[in-house]
Write a structure and sequence with these properties.
Order of helices and strands: EHHEHEHHHEHHEE
Helix content: 40-55%
Number of helices: 8
Shape: globular
Strand content: 5-15%
Distance between the termini: 33 Å
Structural class: alpha/beta
């Protein structure tokens, strides 16, 4: 098995209320990605393979990092459709979308549990299907040769953590909302399984003059 490094995309459109409008990086998102790419080159991180989801924000992040030239695009690495799920939850159960980041703390476990329980009829895919496409993609990538870099989204990274650590739904939801833009996470083979050896690292944003760029939304 090979080591997998997961990177969340840079800050996207924070004012969006639907999937299409969210799917582009902000100016800060591009800058975060540039800083991360510079950091990885400075520390001589080597990746035999680079993958991204097919979403615009994934490909823009890889491009701003300078890792897009040889990147393989794999739609299995796409994010869950948060806005689609959230609008369906509101329409079907009267639960409003969160208005602030603090609102997400209680909202996300509720949304994820309803999705996992099959109580959102308007879901574009089932929770089990989301879970399986991620486990299938990670198993295939881990089975390849050499360390791999994946540029993707927070919900997918949270699911990867859930799978390697056996997290419940509530813990998965809390993990996903804690993930920062352009944060770095590492899954390393130990025995015949992957183990989490790095979570939510932002070494490229640790300087005092860059701490303003440590964003979640």
């Amino acid at each position: 098995m090979s080591t997998i490094t997961l990177v969340r995309h840079g800050q996207a459109n924070t004012t969006a209320r639907d999937e299409a409008d969210y799917d582009r990086l902000s100016a800060l998102g591009h800058r975060q990605a540039e800083w991360l790419g510079d950091h990885l080159r400075h520390t001589r991180e080597h990746y035999s393979r680079v993958y991204t989801g097919s979403l615009t924000r994934h490909r823009e992040t890889a491009a701003s990092m300078g890792f897009d030239a040889d990147a393989a695009v794999d739609a299995r690495l796409n994010e869950l459709e948060f806005f689609t799920l959230a609008h369906a939850l509101q329409a079907e159960h009267g639960v409003p979308l969160p208005a602030t980041r603090e609102d997400f703390v209680g909202y996300m476990p509720r949304l994820m549990q309803a999705w996992a329980d099959g109580r959102i009829e308007g879901a574009p895919e089932s929770f089990a299907s989301f879970e399986k496409r991620i486990s299938d993609a990670l198993a295939e990538i881990a089975g390849g040769h050499g360390p791999a870099l994946i540029v993707t989204s927070g919900g997918l990274i949270g699911m990867a953590v859930r799978q390697v650590m056996g997290l419940g739904i509530a813990a998965y939801a809390q993990t996903a909302i804690a993930i920062m833009n352009t944060s770095v996470h590492r899954l390393h083979p130990i025995g015949d399984a992957l183990a989490l050896t790095q979570f939510n690292a932002v070494p490229h944003l640790d300087r005092p003059e860059r701490q303003f760029a440590q964003t979640h939304l």
